[in-house]
Amino acid sequence: MSESPSQSQPNPDAPQLPCPSFVATDNPIGEKCDVLIVGLCDDAPLSATAAGVDQALGGVISRLIGQEKLSSDCGESMLIPGVGDEGSQLVLLIGLGEKSKLDREAAFTLTSTAVRSLVSKPHEKWVIALPECFDAVDHDAIVAGTLYGLEGQSIYRTKSPIHVPQTIAIASADAAAIDRGVILGDSINLARRLVNEPASVIYPASFAERAAALATEVGLGCEVWDENRLAEENCRAILAVGAGSDKPPRLVILRHDGGPQGEPPIAIVGKGVTFDSGGLSIKPSDGMVDMKCDMGGAATVVGVMRALAKLGVKKNVIGFCGLAENMVSGSSYKLGDVIVTRSGKTIEILNTDAEGRVVLSDTLDVAIEHQPTAMVDLATLTGACMVALGNEVAGLMTNNQSACDAVIAAARGEGEPVWQLPMFELYNEKVKSKVADIKNIGEGRWGGAITAAKFLENFVGDVPWVHIDIAGPAFADSPKPHRDAGATGVMVRTLVRWIENQAG
Questions:
Q1: Model confidence over 382-433: pLDDT tens digits?
Q2: Are 322 and 415 in contact (CB under 8 A)?
């Protein structure tokens, strides 16, 4: 039986996302606050706020610049005394680099960098005057970047190293930009929080419960297939991957009906392996320790669907999350098994640690039944993609160049690095099986990201489809100035923009 959203409740003990109040201000210098955040550019005069602070402080900013003690290089910052009791106690000056090069990526990343330099100390109120340095179309990215800097992986530390102010005032930005930025920032952080939770908290059923509760909150349609419904639907691949766990699999379907009734939807599909031990092809401890992150694709889908609903995007979109826990027990699926998938295609299992594509085989088949006009899947799928592109760049593979070009354009607009890998027909042979239709690994180490995509291509039919391998950028081992280690929420911004572009 499928579960109704009303039957699922969020975990009351789950740590909550940061929730400061955002307000607008047209008087950043005169706004009483703990910290005023001001930007400095290489190739431009001081902004109105920076000039006002400089005058109020007797020319200290100009002197520091003249003495080469203060730099406007990207991300470099300095904290100085504020303008007095009726204004800011402190001023954070942050370098923005060349003004002519400022864009959405810079707005998001540099704001987050500024925020992260302040969160180690408690404050009641910040004023952020960075919008005056950016085009109005990028002001929402400043707000989203603010929230991004307030979220980290230390969600279960008894004394959090991140202090969230009660109020954040945004100067020179209108209410619509602030509202949009809050929605985007919260949606990205939701995806990050789902990934950062331990696997004992986020497993298939609890993930589905959180998705269902979110759907009720924001007005999404939601359907959850439990193990009985999965069996009725012949989702044998999802069931096989989850067979070794005492936590049964789920499939979550989230629906945003923003477009005309009956208009074919866009589909976004996420791999949701809530923990990946490797199964019988068990991983070493070093390779397993972060495998709570293997549901990053499904978390991204939830974040995107939340944003679409809150933004009221005028497009029909359906999100699919294939959820399973890949564990080791007497009931685990085995090497040499042959699985008859929901589509009828058969898979020979030669490595139980290549499980994500197996889960996606059924999930994609469910998605194409909804006759989408285009489909994207996201998965922390292969280490091979990280070998090819590193850990900051997502790999794109496609059966339709126009669809892929549209995703690339959206990613460039948001500053999320992606790179397309080829899908030559010669790779088809590498996933053919002598026992079944296809096998779940290619030929050894070579071209592993592409052969995984070629495996998935068997389950998308003629639907224009883009596969995004986010194994590298979805989870970070170490922090950067603009973000903590842990989950990154990669591709939420890109997919929201991609869908909005199609909505016109």
A1: 999 999 999 999 999 999 999 999 999 999 999 999 999 999 999 999 999 9
A2: no
Per-residue pLDDT tens digits for 289-320: 999 999 999 999 999 999 999 999 999 999 99
d(CA 54, CA 70): 13
Q: What is the CB neighbour count within 10 angstroms for residue 409?
A: 14
Q: What is the C-alpha separation between 219 and 242, in angstroms, rounded? A: 30
* Predicted local distance difference test score (pLDDT) of residue 85: 79
Beta bridge partners of 397: 467
Longest CA–CA separation in the chain, Å: 80
How many whole angstroms separate alpha carbon 335 and alpha carbon 324?
Answer: 18
Rounded to whole angstroms, the Cα distance separating 272 from 290 reads: 14
- Token look-up 């969600």 returns 155
Beta partners for 316?
Answer: 257
Q: How far apart are CA 74 and CA 94, in angstroms?
A: 8
- CA–CA distance, 480 with 472 (Å, rounded to integer): 15
Pair of tokens at residue 105: 């990526």
Helix/strand/coil for 364? helix
Which is the catalytic residue, given 283, 314, 334, 412?
283
- Please give the full DSSP string across 409-438, using - where no structure is assigned: HHHHHHT--EEE----GGGGGGGB-SSSSE
How many other β-carbons are positioned within 10 Å of the β-carbon of residue 232?
Answer: 12
Tens of pLDDT along 164-213? 999 999 999 999 999 999 999 999 999 999 999 999 999 999 999 999 99
Would residue 283 show up in a list of annotated catalytic residues for this protein? yes
How many Cβ atoms are within 10 Å of 259's Cβ, its own excluded? 17
Q: What is the DSSP letter of 7?
A: G
Active site residue 63: no
Token reading at 448: 């592993």
Tell me the three state secondary structure of residue 242.
helix
Angle between helices 401-414 and 104-116 (to 10 degrees): 40
pTM over the 0.70 mark = yes
**Active-site residue (options: 357, 430, 439, 454):** 357
User: Bridge-partner residues for 374, per DSSP?
Assistant: 266
Q: Find the helix packing angle between 296-311 and 175-196, rounded to 10°.
A: 160
Handedness of CA 444, 449, 452, 453 (dihedral sign): negative
- Candidates 115, 94, 107; CA nearest to 484 is 115
Q: How far is CA 302 from CA 48, 152, 195, 307, 417, in A?
A: 40, 19, 11, 9, 21
